[in-house]
Protein 1
Amino acid sequence: MPRRKEIKNSIADKFYSLQIYPSDFFNSFDIHKEFTKWAGLAVDDKSDIPENMSVLTIPAGKYAVFKHVGPDTSIFQQIFGVWIPNSEYTLDDRPHFELLGDEYKKGDPNSKEEIWIPIKVRG
């Protein structure tokens, strides 16, 4: 976040908090299991990225999108423990991310964000 102004070709005023989980990450709950975390902006030109920053292209696919208000993270328990098991979908092996716009205020009870979970039809 401190370097976001260096990115001159940003196409939106929203930020991404993105996670790339190993394929077995959700098989069992382990708070010590490692994953990769990115902070990012959408850009329209990948050729002018500042030094020590990288490009990550999110593969196309279906996402379940949840609009969330407030700092409470129990929404993830609802998504992974209730919604997905009771839906026709299963997790897809693509990045998960939160889209954080002007209404995102970390820790604020009125903070708003979108949670994007990669899914595919069970089968």
Protein 2
Amino acid sequence: METWQKRNLWSALWRGLKGQCPRCGRAALFRAYLKQVDRCPECHEEWSEIRSDDAAPWLTILIVGHLMAPVLIALAEAGLTPGEMALIMVPILIALCLLILPRAKALFMAAIWALRAQSS
């Protein structure tokens, strides 16, 4: 049983964004692209019970949509056809989603841990 300690939300979020253990910052939070480790090999914090569920995809869509909407509008105003816009936008959208999704998941995991919001 863990003793009650104050957890710094901002340092946990920063470590999560870097893909590190939000508690110690010395080990990776994921063992594969989106597969979190069960337990931190450094500080032994349990991560298997913390789940971000649909929050990470939601945040990813929110960020990518806000980043790419102005680009899409600019491409439309430049007179590109829908096919040309798709050729430009689809690879960028896929790359951004693949880049942001694990960071979003780690961010939510860090917030859940720091705020002690996981279910018991």
Protein 3
Amino acid sequence: MADSIPLKDPAHPSGPVKVKKYTVRVDRDLCIGAATCIAIAPQMYVLDNEAKAVVINTADLQDDAAIIDGARGCPVAAIFIDDENGKRIYPQ
């Protein structure tokens, strides 16, 4: 299954990866595969074959609010988002 996922950055499927003006990273040790991020930002994430969130190649199509809301929706705060200056947006 992992080979068929259209990843934004195949070398770093969970990031850090640039999405629009953000740098996004999913902490694979924290991620529990709840898929809330996918429900909120479906153009941004999918679960890989280990049930960990990965950033897909349609991420740049996701609107900015959903990018941040997807991270906020994670029940274990496994998604980290920094702005273009490296300032942490979420979690703060």
Protein 4
Amino acid sequence: MKKIFNDIRRLTEFENDLKKLSKKFRTLEEDLEIFIEKQLQLFHKLKVDNKGIFPISDLGITYPKIYKAKKFACKSLKGKGVASGIRVIYAYFENEDSIEFMEIYYKGDKENEDRERILMHY
């Protein structure tokens, strides 16, 4: 994979979420790579807003910016396309040009992001 951002990190909690979800959705790791290459590059590098990524602004955190991705294509969820119901929460450190993945969840299991986790890290 070509390098799009200076750094891409994953919180341990994100790794745990991913491992758990991967049992249900086998293509998740691959889907995440495509998500970085397509969605995140479009949004952060090419400044194209396809209404799939939203800032979470009411956390009281000014830096880094925290985002929720609502459009995430998961090949394991056939026929759903980007409306898979998988949500990705991440921080974008603009000055360092880096991404830190914080949470991934399936909307069928859980309604919203773990705000405590976000606030604990920033």
